[in-house]
Amino acid sequence: MQTIKLNNGIEMPVLGYGVFQVSPEECERCVLDAISTGYRLIDTAQAYYNEEGVGNAVTRCGVPRNELFLTTKIWISNAGETNAARSIDESLRKLHTDYIDLLLIHQPFSDYPGTWRAMEKAVKDGKVRAIGLSNFYPDRFVDMAEYAEIKPAVNQLKTNVFSQQWEAEAEMNLYDTHIMAWAPLAQGNPELLTNPVLTALAERYNKTVQQVALRYLIQRGIIAIPKSTHTERMKQNLDVFDFALTPEDMESIRPLDKPDDFRWSHRNPELVKFLLNYDRQFNPDNKK
């Protein structure tokens, strides 16, 4: 597996397996399948409610813990120095591990500076190897990066051929922070499969459009975490290291970038309200 060196020297796989919207009941099986297929980076989050499934798979898979790279994220309801510290210990318990390889702030809301302080302490205490952000747009990313004693290793953003994050990348490069792509396959957007630029490249290299889309991100130095519950698709997503796009190919994909859809922007007040109330809607045990 190809790796990327983070700004603290840690090597991280460039391609991993994400478990967003994988049910708690399915998660253990899916992660076991992914590890068996060859994935070593597994990405979960407190708000996915499936950390225990990931932890069970890690315990059962037979792969040494030091050969796996586990990422999780602190949710808004656990923001602040005290709450975040408590939630880190809870994530460690659910993941059946004594350290997390990469820990992120999931959303740029509530007391995220306090959350960051708890994360920095967790690094110093040996509970976490690297820390970063998720969904921090360039303005809030710079605010955090300038504030932080430990600079963010990654910023996880919606990144794919239709959402290429060039503005964010330019700011992140100043801190040697890598983009980690969620929705790297555009969340099932049917245009991905029919776009003439992508379909022509797929035919040229005898690959699928999805493989071309993932290869584009990898060649930009972007970490990608595609999700599938089907083993064959997991294998297909991993099979992207035996070909390379030319500079001309890369340039042909760049014009596919589109303006952000404001409905799903973190600057949209309605989306912010939805995220702030997420636990109340999806987790009946949390009625804060």
UniProtKB/TrEMBL annotation:
Binding site for substrate: H106
Site location (Lowers pKa of active site Tyr): K73
Protein family: Belongs to the aldo/keto reductase family.
Pfam families reported in the protein's UniProt record: Aldo_ket_red
Residues of the NADP-dependent oxidoreductase domain: 21-256
The keyword Oxidoreductase belongs to this UniProt entry's keyword annotation: yes
Superkingdom as given in the UniProt entry: Bacteria
The organism of origin for this protein: Phocaeicola massiliensis B84634 = Timone 84634 = DSM 17679 = JCM 13223
Name by which UniProt lists this protein: NADP-dependent oxidoreductase domain-containing protein
CDD domains: AKR_AKR5F1 (cd19133)
UniProt-recorded Gene Ontology molecular function terms: oxidoreductase activity, acting on the CH-OH group of donors, NAD or NADP as acceptor
Catalytic residues in the record: Y48
Family matches, as PANTHER family: 2,5-DIKETO-D-GLUCONIC ACID REDUCTASE (PTHR43827), NADP-DEPENDENT OXIDOREDUCTASE DOMAIN-CONTAINING PROTEIN (PTHR43827:SF3)
PROSITE patterns: ALDOKETO_REDUCTASE_1, ALDOKETO_REDUCTASE_2, ALDOKETO_REDUCTASE_3
UniProt keyword annotation of Lipid metabolism present: no
